[in-house]
Amino acid sequence: MFWLRRGGATLAMVAEPLSALTLDRVGRVYGDGRAALDDVSLTVPRGRFLAVMGRSGSGKSTLLQCAAGLDRPTSGSVRVGGTELAGLGEAALTRLRRDRIGFVFQSLNLVPSLTVQENAALPLLLADTPDEGRALAALATVGLADRAQDAPDELSGGQRQRVAVARALVTRPEVVFADEPTAALDPDTAEVVLALLRQAVDDTGCAVVLVTHDPTAAEWADEVLFLDGGRVAGRLDRPDAGQIRQALRTLGDRR
Ligand code: ADP
Ligand code: MG
After folding, report:
1. Is the CB of 60 under 6 A from ligand 1?
2. pLDDT at res. 182
3. Chain Cα centroid distance, residue 119
4. What is the pLDDT of residue 5?
């Protein structure tokens, strides 16, 4: 928040756009001394959808893990909302991940012994704040309210990934991280999952960070960030799949 002043009079109070996620000069060096991430800075405001692209080994998953508090950077700073992650101990970090972040991964990671509804409610159950209404609302958002009492293995792969999206959204998180969430899905089903992430950004104002190798998936984003060798190698605003393919080719040619 800051104040606009002119001639001594305060004209208006202006809200700064709230950042859901900020990385400032983040580095991650693994044991072998090589930097998987090198000096990466980015800001994702609330209500914005960022796609992260780059060849295999370029640091996409490391970026996502550091940004989501699943891994600790070796340098630089990560903030979720106003919270600096480096200042948090393990228990506080676990709570932050559970309560303020949503996750969707490539491999379907539902708990097979729980119902669809219990899976969607999992972050609430782990926080000891069960809320059946919220869980059902999250399932309704992904079009699966009528499957609430089924077991995950009674659903198709695409439906299971929609449950994973419901689970990611059930706490109304500030940021949703998705690592190749559509890689195992056919194109039509992938589109449904991506549309749900887009809808979450537009309707709830959360931020989404999507790691993908698929230009048609990245097309759903507001911005695409390209990584190469752990460094930011380029950015595109609201690109179409053709522009994204061109940028990926250019990256490849630079080698
Ligand atoms: P991407 O997701 O883009 O394929 P990653 O973030 O998984 O890339 O990996 C980036 C680099 O870091 C690669 O060179 C990879 O081999 C290395 N790396 C990833 N995880 C580890 C780890 N746990 N230990 C050592 N090196 C790792
Ligand atoms: Mg990866």
Report:
1. yes
2. 93
3. 19
4. 47
Q: For a substitution probing ligand 1, which of 62, 180, 228 has the most ligand atoms within 8 Å of its CB? A: 62
Tell me, using a 6 A CB cutoff, whether residue 97 lines ligand 1. Answer: no
Task: Give 252's pLDDT tier (boundaries 50, 70, 90).
Answer: confident
- Angle among Cα 21, 24, 30 to the nearest 5 degrees reads 105
Mean pLDDT of the chain: 92
Q: CA–CA separation, 207 vs 225, rounded Å?
A: 15
Which of 26, 30, 227 to mutate to test ligand 1, by most ligand atoms within 8 A of the CB atom? 30
List alpha helices for the chain, DSSP H. Answer: 60-67, 90-100, 116-120, 122-126, 132-141, 157-169, 187-204, 215-218, 241-253
| CA-to-CA separations, 239 to 168, 193, 205, 216, in angstroms, rounded | 26, 19, 21, 10
Q: How far is the CA of 181 from the centre of ligand 1 (A)?
A: 18
Could you give the domains of the chain? Answer: 46-72+90-254 (3.40.50.300)
Which residues have a beta carbon within 5 Å of ligand 2, which is an ion?
A: 60-61
Q: What is the structure's pLDDT at 108?
A: 65
Token code pair at residue 135 = 């869980």
Instruction: Tell whether ligand 1 has an atom less than 6 A from the beta carbon of residue 197.
Output: no
